[in-house]
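Fold this sequence, please.
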Amino acid sequence: MAKSKKIVMTGGGTAGHVTPNIALMPALQEAGYEITYIGSYNGMEKELIEAQKIPYIGISSGKLRRYFDWKNFSDPFKVLKGYGQAISILRKLKPDVVFSKGGFVSVPVVLAAKHCHIPAIIHESDITPGLANKIAIRGAKKVCCNFPETMKYLPAEKAVLTGSPIRRELFHGDAEKSLHYCGFPDHSKPVLLIVGGSSGSKVINEAVRKVLPELLEQFYIIHLCGKGNLDEKLKGVVGYAQFEYASAELTDMFALADLAISRAGANSICELLALHKPNILIPLSAAASRGDQILNAKSFAKQGFSYVIEEEKLTDQTLLDAVREVYADREKYIHTMSESGQMDSIGTILKLIESVSK
């Protein structure tokens, strides 16, 4: 058994800032690391990490906004408080290294690591670094990223192209199990999986439900629509299985799916690439975000991994045309993705962690 080493992991706010950390955990434990997680008091990361039986410590966390909000006056004090708490926790735990997946809760932790002379590695999922990581980069020894295009936005001496850690269990789904879980009668139709991100997508939900009869002629449909977004009127429709969220079941759903419709969050699309799932991406519009999903989607379309519909161009017809076209060309997409040389992200990041550990 390897000598016990200590790592503090951090990241939160959305599932995208947590799932890659969870994907790394088994390999870290096998390498002899004792893991402690620092997140916000009540963020979604708390439940996800505690489910992994990993010690979790909550700290004060504020959001850093680029727009006017009255909370901009109080949140810096929350961040400062979190910074003080993180210093105290790190001094007590004395970890060999800190690994951050981003989100605003990670900023005080990474800066506290620098203050305590503990090496920190951060991972940036999107093509351009978000505000939280832009600040945290100053305290980091190395910065991992998913896309070749990201390298030019990062300090050359810190940037490492690693790809995104993918949970091992995603590669071992049971399609038969999902068929029964979703209540589909047989394998007579291909399966379309719709994923709107961790909180669901109203735009995608409405677009899919408007053309449901046409889609059901050709496909069975698994629709992950987000919390509070189930449509009671559609309960009992044969071939249509709607769920607010899938956790353990998602692995089996991926195994069953022949085609996916998804937002273009970096972790989601990296999972689709790793699993070689033909996909249609509908990135979050620039009006509702900083435009990172649009850049992610363009990169994947350019590499031949995805078909992209801009949210502003999403209509009944563009959606149906895309589904029919991608399904008809599915072998081409599968071949391109399988030739992509998807990196061994977990192995690469683990070597990086080992190299900077004190």
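The chain has a mean pLDDT of 91. The first strand starts at residue 5 and ends at 10.
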